Amino acid sequence: MPSAHADPTPATPTTPAPTTSATPSAAAAPTTSTTTAAATLTPATPAAAVADCSTATLSKTISSVTLQLSDYFAAHPDADSALLDATRQPAFTAMGQFDNYFKAHPDQADALRGIQAPLAAFKDRCGLQVAPTDALAVLNGV
User: Fold this and answer.
1) How many CB atoms lie within 10 A of CB 65?
2) Helical packing angle, 91-104 and 106-126, nearest 10°
3) What DSSP character marks residue 129?
4) Whole-number Å distance between alpha carbons of 22 and 29
5) What is the pLDDT of residues 25-78, one digit of tens each?
């Protein structure tokens, strides 16, 4: 059984290549080309990621997340009210209120984390040490 189980695993990646090319000899060539393409894409991917780390892309990501947050809070006035009220408190008090609110509403915490995931992913992917929102706050003083 272990060898039978091991055989389907290699056959699965090979199966999509022959599906693309009907002839067996053509299937062998795309496999080599696919390997070459994968090797070619590996160095190109970091360059693409660097290009994706522009301030223009950051701004678009922030805009998208902000729009989704706006829609979420419009649909959830209780969360909107609770979080806005918390922001009117001193920072230490506000953080406690945020924590308490989200402990009582874990579904909303998960939804908001999901909405903000693209911004967190951008920060991680691009190696940002300062939160994008903090960087934008600096621009308010310019």
Assistant:
1) 19
2) 120
3) S
4) 12
5) 444 444 444 444 444 444 444 545 555 899 889 889 999 999 999 999 999 999
